[in-house]
Design a protein that fits this description.
Blueprint: H1 2-16, H2 22-28, H3 34-65, H4 70-90, H5 104-112, H6 115-128, H7 130-149, H8 151-189
């Protein structure tokens, strides 16, 4: 159970990519005092968490309503995550993500809890159940909050090139996870072992 929680939390963390949100968070909060910045980070994480947990608990209901098979979700999710991973690795903007969201809520979603996190949440509920997925999500959200809280220090310490390197490595890991989802979805769809 511990191994599943750690792996799931790391996956959530990689997909959320809080390091890539640092420049945006800094630009949105540049005129705020330290207390307001903490409040802004908390607001962003709470909003991201609300979206994540809405899909965690009601995602299966949506699958049932639209009669979507888990194998199809796995393949589609893998394709979406592949695109997001390629975006991170190559610094592209295939999905049309806004570079300068006007508010903290837009930082929360789609930046932190975007399509990748939503799909992954629903897949993890199918694979691991509600408890492991919930704990993993909470760990990842807490880690993301800490990174946003320390964003000024992190930005000064690693610089722009350091942030770019982290984003590219994150993209590679995300793409590898996406390929695993596609393979497992194909196996489930065609009843392969």
């Amino acid at each position: 159970m511990i191994d599943e929680i750690i792996k799931s939390a790391l996956t959530f963390f990689v997909i959320m990519g809080p390091f890539s949100s640092i420049p945006i968070f800094l630009s949105v909060t540049k005129y705020m005092n330290p207390k307001q910045k903490v409040s802004a980070a908390t607001q962003a994480i709470l909003t991201a968490g609300a979206v994540l947990f809405a899909f965690l608990f009601f995602g299966q209901f949506l699958l049932d309503v639209f009669m979507i098979d888990f194998a199809s979700l796995s393949i589609a999710g893998g394709l979406v995550l592949t695109i997001l991973g390629i975006e991170l690795m190559l610094s592209l903007s295939i999905s049309g993500k806004s570079e300068t969201p006007p508010a903290i809520t837009l930082l929360a979603t789609p930046m932190l809890t975007g399509p990748g996190v939503i799909v992954t949440t629903m897949i993890f509920v199918q694979q691991h159940g509600y408890l492991i997925t919930s704990i993993s999500a909470l760990i990842s959200l807490a880690a993301s909050w800490v990174i946003m809280w320390l964003s000024g220090h992190i930005s000064r310490a690693i610089g722009t090139s350091g942030t770019d390197i982290i984003s590219r490595v994150t993209g590679l890991l995300l793409t590898a996870f996406a390929i695993e989802l596609i393979i497992s979805g194909i196996k489930a769809a065609f009843l392969l072992t």
